[in-house]
Amino acid sequence: MLIPELRRTYPEVFEPSSTTPNSLALLEINRESDVHKLTDNCQFFIYVTSEYSTLMDNLPRHVQKKIMLTIIDNTEFTPHSAESTPVTFERSNSVTHHSIKINSRKAFAGIELFLKEDTKAASEYFDALQESNIIEVRKFLSWYLRTENLTSWMFHVICTEIARNTLSETKINQIYDDLKLNSLVECSASMHEELQKTLIPKTNEFFDKKLRWYMLYWRNDNVEYWLKDFFQANFMSKSIESYNYVRGQLTARLQEQKFAAYSDKTGVLNPLKAFKRTLVNERIANEIQPVVYSCLALGFIYYQLPLTVLSVLGYLFVGLEANTAFAIGLLGWVLGFNHVSREWDNFTKNWRKNFFEEVRIVISKGCVDDGLLKELDSRYEESRMLAMIKQQVLDSLQKYK
User: Fold this and answer.
1) Any stretches that span the bilayer, and where are they (predicted)?
2) Of 114, 308, 322, 347, which is least packed with CB atoms within 10 Å of its CB?
3) What pLDDT score was predicted for residue 256?
4) CB-based contacts of 24: which residues, under 8 Å, 6+ apart?
5) CA-to-CA distance for 272 and 277, rounded, in angstroms?
6) Domain identity same for 179 and 52
7) Is the domain of 293 the same as that of 377?
8) Are both 156 and 185 inside the same structural domain?
9) pLDDT value of residue 217
């Protein structure tokens, strides 16, 4: 069976071959882990199982596609075959997977009896081979070890895999429409919802309750770090994750074709994450902390210090009464506090208004228009082009069938 010169050609069943048959090297693989290692070294696999249904469950696709024949070996009903009987398997090379039912126990019993009793058991031996359907397997191998049949089978496997793993233009358009009309719209809506219902209320509450003007005297240098901690924990965390998730969906759904080399372009990195990084690392220190120093310094220099000095000098050198001097000094501190309160409230209201508007723009333009939508269009065009190229390759191959 292994050497073509000694192999039965079954002329009563098959027409003569125009090419020299191939030699056969059998390699028995019992562990699934070994199958992965040897996939590229074997021209085809013969899968032996007691239950046909276990094939698809146990083996990955790249192994399944190389399985030319599945042998179902059990003691259930088994058809008989003789050397002269017609074959039951499909001889068309467009069929890439075949199955044959055998009963190896009957064959083993016949062989064992023949080895024990020699030619006396010849009749029982041949009956056992026919009843086990082993001869059908020999015929199958004899047919598909012919060069023209083996190469044709491999050619059809390649064509089948290309066709199986090529997204149609209709499917690509459906994926594109679903991502654009559903995923991107839902992502944009969830981002705006988090801005309106979470970030804006929390930020306003933080400034109005925890960072009032009088807190500047207590926090002073620590206002910057307090704000950094707040935005680090509360700035659009769900939206940042949502952007990353949708980007992953774009890649996963529009780059699912096998045998395709996709570009490694990264698209637009998360604009909200970049905005947050700039806010925490630069803007708070450059925009807010200087205003804290300015409010406190100007209130002290323009109001509190002059009137305090005036009240002290008036009491010591002009003869102002203590109550009058105290009132003048107190007035200076009140005016200073009023200045700090007015300036800080005006600044924080304007800063928050501009800040929220900037976040809206980042969501609408940065995340959606210039981010996800552009990346979707780019991935879509790339997927369409690859599908078109693969279809052209497949059409060219079909001409040689």
Assistant:
1) 324-341
2) 322
3) 65
4) 1, 2, 141, 145
5) 9
6) no
7) yes
8) no
9) 84
